[in-house]
Design brief:
Layout: E1 2-5, E2 12-19, H1 23-29, E3 41-44, E4 49-52, E5 58-63, H2 64-79, H3 89-95, E6 101-102, E7 106-110, H4 116-135, H5 152-162, E8 172-179, E9 188-193, E10 200-205, E11 208-214, H6 220-228, E12 233-238, H7 244-255
Bound molecules: zinc ion (ZN).
């Protein structure tokens, strides 16, 4: 047990060990016991490091109350739909919905086609991971590139949202891209900037790729998506093995003889 000041609500008391990405996700990226139960595959994009490690990114950071709020509104519902060794409920959900747009690479869904609680949980989860990455109390864990993505006023708004005082963060636009390639779902990637010229972060949790764009001035194509479909959250599906990011990982595994 450790006493201190909670990173979110700023109250002093007992501070819990918090995880940057959900602890429950790590056991799903570990090899299945029938395949030896080897260490999980973790990707640290900002430092260009990929590899198998048992090291979880944790720190004494939040009070018990804020931890349980994060769990109740984000992690718990999202953990029910991410990919496991056995199934991928989120992909099943999308496969039962008619996309509003289909291109060769991607299907597009509006968040109001999802159950309202699920859409809110996906949004809350994404915002909570982004907040953690920016405010994380340690600097040696590969999320340094996230610092400064949001300005002081935007961080204040994010905090108010996470504490339940406002319902959305106006300057954030979140795209959840659900992976359709079953070999690529067992992966976690730490939040990192994904384009130098854009205020945006990306992270992967078990087949769910969250792309978080920061306004208020969005690039034209993002603003078009917002005005056409939804100002806060859009859901797409695509084959992540065809992304540039996947190619890099495959190359790494190959070079290092990791099967
Ligand atoms: Zn707290």
């Amino acid at each position: 047990m450790k006493a201190g000041i909670c990173g979110l609500c700023k109250k002093s008391g007992i501070i819990k060990k918090s995880h940057l990405l959900p602890k429950s996700a790590y056991k799903q990226v570990r090899d299945h016991p029938s395949e030896g139960g080897g260490s999980p595959m973790i990707v640290d994009m900002a430092r260009n490091k990929f590899g198998k490690t048992d090291k979880q990114v944790d720190a004494h950071f939040l009070c018990g109350n804020c931890e349980s709020v994060f769990s109740k509104f984000g992690e718990a519902p999202v953990s029910k739909i991410w990919a496991t060794h056995f199934d991928f409920p989120m992909l099943d959900i999308l496969n039962k919905i008619t996309p509003i747009s289909i291109s060769t690479k991607r299907k597009l869904y509006k968040s109001d086609q999802l159950d309202g609680d699920l859409a809110r949980a996906l949004y809350y989860f994404a915002v909570s991971v982004v907040w953690r990455a920016i405010e994380w109390p340690r600097t040696n864990v590969g999320v340094v590139s996230c610092k400064g993505v949001l300005n002081v006023d935007q961080m204040r708004e994010v905090t108010q949202f996470l504490l339940g005082n406002i319902s959305v963060v106006d300057d954030l636009f979140i795209v959840l891209d659900v992976n359709t390639c079953s070999e690529m779902t067992g992966m976690l990637s730490m939040p990192a900037r994904f384009a130098a010229d854009l205020e945006s972060l990306l992270f992967d949790v078990l087949g769910l790729r969250f792309m978080v764009f920061v306004g208020p001035g969005f690039p034209l194509e993002i603003e078009t998506l917002r005005t056409t479909y939804d100002r806060n959250l859009l859901v797409t599906s695509s084959d992540h093995s065809e992304s540039r990011f996947a190619m890099q990982i495959a190359k790494y595994l190959n070079e290092n003889n990791i099967q």
